[in-house]
Amino acid sequence: MKKKSFKEKYNIKWIVLISIWTFLMAIVFTVVSERLVENLNVFMSFIVLLSIVLIGIVFDVIGIAVATGGEQVFHSMASNRIKEARHAIKLVRNASQVSNFCNDVIGDISGIISGAISTNIMFNVITIYKDLNGVVLSILLTSLVASLTVGGKAFGKDLGMNYNEEIIFFVSKILYFLDEKFGINLLKDKKDIKEKKDKKMRKNNKEK
Fold this sequence. Notes:
With 208 residues, the chain is mainly α. It has one domain. The chain has nine helices and no strands. The chain has helices spanning 6-9, 12-38, 42-68, 72-79, 85-93, 95-128, 134-162, 164-182, 190-207. Helix 2 (12-38) runs parallel beside helix 6. It is elongated.
């Protein structure tokens, strides 16, 4: 049996690409969220904070579902001409990249953003209520965010593992919608590339 090369064993292209994308996304989302929170009161800032934590949990559920899901049920759907099934199969086949993006990239970015927003909320509260102890408030707010994140992800892991097929199929519906309505194909495979080439060739033949 032929051993896989280093490049085949480890997707270097994906690792480099996702590292760059994470760096850029972290900068953009952190700046945008901080600018947004600056113009909001404490209550609305806290709502934004909870929303960021929730986004991290939701993507963690998707990552777990894809990592633990199988292709068989979606092949059956595809044989019954259920259009979304093809996207579901691509999700499972790209489980490593999908789970990396959902669990690590979005998870880490949401953690960074929630930390930045927490700091902003703390300073706003101290500005309004000057008698409050900033250190105690910081500890309480950080602990609250951590407990919500960890508790939410613990629940989400069970959800993702127990309902992986349903979650994968739901996500595949979103991917199918983006592909059909806007031509956005987030998970391209060899068949997609071939279809694109064939479509381009047919277009060129018509023009001739």
